[in-house]
Protein: Formate dehydrogenase subunit gamma
Organism: Halomonas mongoliensis
Amino acid sequence: MSLCRYGPLGGLLLAVMLVLTALLAPPALAQAETEREAATAVAGVSPDVWRQVRSGEVDANFRDTRFDSNYNLINASGERWRQLRNRWVSPFGLIAVGGMILAIALFYVIVGRKELSEPRTGRKLLRWPLFVRSLHWTVATLFIVLALTGLNLLYGKFVFRPLFGDAFWAWMISASKLAHNYLGPLFGILLVVLLARVLRHNWPKRHDLEWFRQGGGLVGKGHPDAGFANGGEKLWFWLLATAGLAVVASGFVLDFPNYGQSRDTMQWANLIHGVGALGLTAVALGHIYIGTLGSEGSLEAMTTGYVDETWAKDHHNLWYEEVKDQAVPEEAIGGDSRPGDERSETASRPG
C-alpha cells in the first residue's frame, strides 16, 4: 500500500521515516566498528603494557616525541574520551536531532500551521533593517553548513561509506573537515556580532514568564503578551549566547592546537563541542520550523524586513502598541529597506 494515496500527509510521514532510519541506523553499526578499531589500532599490546599505560610508566617507544611533552601515545585518557564520545555523545545527538524531527512532524500533522487570527491589513511595520537581515542569513547559512558537516564527521561513515564506497567517502569526509575547520571561526566571529546587535531586544521581562506558562499561545485562549521579542525568541538568543559561545570557544581550541593546549584539554573541548553543537542543532530545527512553515507571516520579517500589522498584533502585541503609528501601506515600501530603516528599528524598543 502506497503512502502517496494519502497525499501530503503520507509523503511527510514517509520523509520522516526515511530521515529517522538514516539517523538511527548508526548505533547498530557503531558498536561493531568501534570494537574493530580497538582490536586493530594497537595490535600486540599485552595486559601488562595496558597496566603500565594506566599508571603512566611506559618506555620511550610509547612516549610523545614533541618537545617538553610527557604524554603517552597510548593513554588511558584517550580511551576514556573514546568511550564518552561513542557511548554518550553520539547517542545523545541521535536522540536530540532525531527526536526533534519526529516532534516537529507530529506537531505539524496534529496542530498544523498557525494562521493569522484576522485578514492582513496591507499595512506594514519595519521589524529588521537590511544589515541585521544580511547578518542573520549569513550566520544561519554558516550554521547549517557546519551542522551538516559536523553530523557527517560524527555519523557519516555509518551511512555514506556503505552506500557509496571508500573512494567517495574519502572525498566527502575530507571536504567536510576542511569546510568545518575553515568556516567555524568565521561563524564564531559573526555570531558574536549578531548577538551584540540584537542584545537590547532580548533582556528578560516579567511578561515572558506568562508567555512560557501559556506555551507561546498553545495553552488557553488568545496570545500571551510579547514585546519586540517573545519568550521563545529570547530563550533561543540566550542559548546561542551561552551554549553557542561554548561551542565556538571549544571549536577554536580544536581548530588551533598550536597554542599549548594539552591532549586532555583537546579531548574535553571535543566533548563540549559535540554536546553543545548537537543540542543547538536540535533546537535550531524548531526555530527554523516556527520561522518558516509553522507560522504564517514570520518568514517575511527576515526576507523583506517588514511584517503585516495583523502579524504584529498576534505575536508581539506590546511592540505593536509602541510602533503602530509607523505603519505604512505595502505599496509605499518600494523595496526591502529604505534610508530610514535603522532609525525606525531604533524606535521599536523591546517591550
In short: Residues 77-347 form a domain with the Fumarate Reductase Cytochrome B subunit fold (CATH 1.20.950.20). Confidence is low (pLDDT under 50) at residues 1-6, 335-340, 346-351. The chain has 13 helices and three strands. The chain has one domain: 77-347.
